[in-house]
């Protein structure tokens, strides 16, 4: 009977089946009060002792369960913190990776720029080339001036020839046509006032044309020199 009660009372270590345990104890107490014996009294003491042990185990199990729950909650918080730390580290790693990619791209661009700079000729060589270009420009300028002088001389010669041919044509016309009043005056050595005035006006116009032509040539020469000097300055600045 005692072993049976012990097995029944301690069957569930977590406190399950309490109703059956107390019902069995109630039946045992009722039988004790109906027929009280010393043997049954000892059995009741034993049952109470086992009930105390069961309650102690239940309390211990409850404490262990609470402690395990607290430990699990603490571990859960640690896992959450580790997860957040891992996420932060992952974000930082991605940022560093992007920075590393940018730095790598910049380094490649810098290396390419350095290679292009190394391919450029040195300053001395460039200066020599500029000096050669300046000398060629000076030679071309002198050659151009000579060509302009030749062109000017040829234009003057052509103008003189044109005037000579015009005089010849006029002379032929005068020879073929009857003499005019002016021709008669020239031949006779006497000119009228209107003819003298007209001749002076023509001479003045020819002088003005010659002066204007000289002024335009002088201005073109100055502008050409200014353009050459500006080109020379631009080349020196470069």
Automatic annotation (TrEMBL):
Residues 221-232 have a biased composition (Basic residues). It holds the Pfam family THOC7. The keyword Coiled coil applies. Keywords: Coiled coil, Nucleus. Transmembrane segments: none annotated. Residues 123-150 form a coiled coil. Its main location: nucleus. GO terms for cellular component: THO complex part of transcription export complex. It is found in: Nucleus. Residues 176-238 are annotated as: Disordered. InterPro entries: THOC7/Mft1. The keyword Manganese does not apply. One of its GO terms (biological process) is mRNA processing. Residues 204-220 have a biased composition (Basic and acidic residues). This is THO complex subunit 7 homolog. It comes from Steinernema glaseri.
């Amino acid at each position: 009977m005692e072993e049976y009660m012990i097995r029944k009372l301690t069957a569930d270590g977590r406190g399950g089946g309490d109703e059956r345990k107390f019902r069995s104890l109630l039946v045992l107490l009722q039988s004790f009060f109906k027929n009280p014996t010393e043997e049954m009294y000892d059995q009741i003491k034993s049952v109470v002792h086992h009930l105390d042990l069961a309650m102690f185990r239940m309390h211990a199990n409850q404490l262990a369960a609470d402690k395990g729950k607290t430990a699990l909650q603490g571990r859960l918080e640690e896992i959450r913190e580790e997860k957040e730390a891992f996420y932060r580290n992952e974000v930082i790693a991605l940022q560093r990776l992007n920075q590393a990619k940018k730095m790598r791209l910049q380094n490649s661009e810098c290396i390419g720029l350095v290679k292009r700079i190394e391919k450029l000729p040195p300053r001395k060589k460039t200066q020599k080339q500029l000096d050669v270009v300046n000398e060629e420009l000076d030679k071309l300028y002198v050659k151009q001036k000579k060509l302009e002088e030749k062109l000017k001389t040829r234009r003057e010669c052509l103008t003189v020839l044109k005037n000579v041919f015009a005089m010849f044509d006029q002379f032929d016309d005068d020879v073929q046509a009857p003499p005019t009043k002016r021709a008669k005056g020239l031949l006779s050595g006497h000119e009228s006032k209107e003819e003298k005035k007209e001749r002076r006006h023509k001479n003045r116009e020819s002088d003005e044309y010659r002066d204007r032509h000289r002024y335009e040539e002088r201005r073109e020469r100055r502008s050409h020199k200014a353009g050459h000097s500006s080109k020379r300055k631009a080349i020196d600045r470069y």
